[in-house]
Amino acid sequence: MRYTTNGGTTWLTKTMTGAQGSTGFVTSIAFNNNKLNGVSAGYGTYSTIGRTTDGGNTWFAQAIPNTIPDGNNFGELKWVPGYNTVYLIVSSSSATQSFKSTDNGATWTSVQFPAIGGVTHMDLSYFSNKAQVSSVSSTGSVMKLQDSPLPVSLESFTYNVSGRDVNLKWVTTVEENNAGFEVYRISSDLNASDPNNWLKVGYIKGNGNKNTPTNYNFTDSKLPSGKYNYRIKQIDYNGNYEYFTLNGIAKIENSKSISLHQNYPNPFNPTTNIDYDLSADSKVTLKVYDISGREVLTLVNDQQKAGFYTVKFNATNLSSGTYFYKLFLNSNGSDIVITKKMTVIK
Predict the structure, then answer these.
(1) Number of domains in the chain
(2) For each successive 10 residues of the chain (346 residues), what is the average pLDDT?
(3) What is the domain extent for residue 325?
(4) Which listed residue, 99, 214, 262, 339, has the most CB atoms within 10 A of its CB?
């Protein structure tokens, strides 16, 4: 494959894998509007297509549920503009199968396309929040698939980082039968194509039916240091869904200072959270004392790396009253002690 990143002034060569084809040529390539997610299909015996999540820099094989026995198959792809939805037709001279993906080509389901003979061309149109796929067969028949409504038109999906918090914002222009959005997070060092690596971190209720722009916000709070990506799963009231993936990586930097934060909630019964920040690798001890200065519990006693930490404290076995928690650090030969007060109310 040859590609350009400067409008065609120069061209680079890239090996494309996964676009299944016994004779070695690609018949169709399609990209999402974000220019990062793309799929490719070839000519030959099908079990996989090609897929990229980094704008075509790397490609890998993605399985499709194909069952056409003929080895002389053409694949053709069409992407719905502004969505994570892409259609694939795999066709031989005697049979055709059709597929649809709503998560940038990660998973595929069969869709019924009433084809007679092999499909030689496919086109896609989008109107009234519906996708219409048309094709021409080898016998000259024109076929049309009117797909179910695409429930949400997403105008933008953006983020910003504030300390340990990632603030997500997305804007819809059209909503049909929209129940809401599940929010998922993944660490950037995990395989994003494996759905088990995505962690559900929240849910935002949708607006059902609406034809004017709507702003949505979600904050993922108190994250450890690291790099993260996000996606939202839009679900309608019938259980249909579509994924939208954030274009970009949210990075939580290490703390630049040593801090012990006020516990929350406070006062509390019976549990509370204690946050502390380390700007360097340290030997860390976190202890709890009663009002007389007697040690009642050790919460942490370990060597820890620079980063952000949260410890849950359970005071079920303690009586009501005022307590102190102390953070003892030894970092680069220096000893540091920080003390805070908390209150148990029963």
Answers:
(1) 3
(2) 76 72 73 85 81 86 75 78 79 76 85 58 56 60 58 86 95 88 95 90 94 94 93 88 88 92 97 95 97 96 94 96 96 90 96
(3) 259-344
(4) 99
